[in-house]
Amino acid sequence: MSAETESISHEALLEMANQLIREHDEYFSGMEANEVIQQGDVLVFRGPWFLDDQGLPTAKTTAVFNVFKHLAVVLSPRYHLA
């Protein structure tokens, strides 16, 4: 993790991430981040993936992936987990 990033708790980061999710163009009801981990300099967000009955990706899965990627791109350069 870079010395230029701000330390933040899991709870505060998830609160911020979920606010950004709700403001995102691809947001739909039920999309949320409920876990975050640090892998090197990258924050990785996790939550429901909305797979079909056979466990395969759906259009909602793609939207979740895109939004979680957006969170990593926006928040990783600014924060690291405390």
What would you note in describing this structure?
By secondary structure, this protein is α+β, with helices and mostly antiparallel strands. It has two helices and four strands. It has helices at 10-23, 59-75; strands spanning 6-8, 35-39, 42-46, 79-81. A hairpin with a 2-residue loop joins strand 2 and strand 3 (42-46). The longest helix has 17 residues, at 59-75. The model has no long low-confidence stretch (mean pLDDT 95).
The poorly predicted ranges are none
**Average of the residue pLDDT scores:** 95
Strand fraction equals: 15-25%
Overall SS class: alpha+beta
Q: What's the main sheet like?
A: 2 strands, parallel
Principal-axis shape: elongated
CATH architecture: 2-Layer Sandwich
Q: Helical content, roughly?
A: 25-40%
Keywords:
82 residues, alpha+beta, GMP Synthetase, Chain A, domain 3, two-stranded parallel ribbon, two-stranded antiparallel ribbon
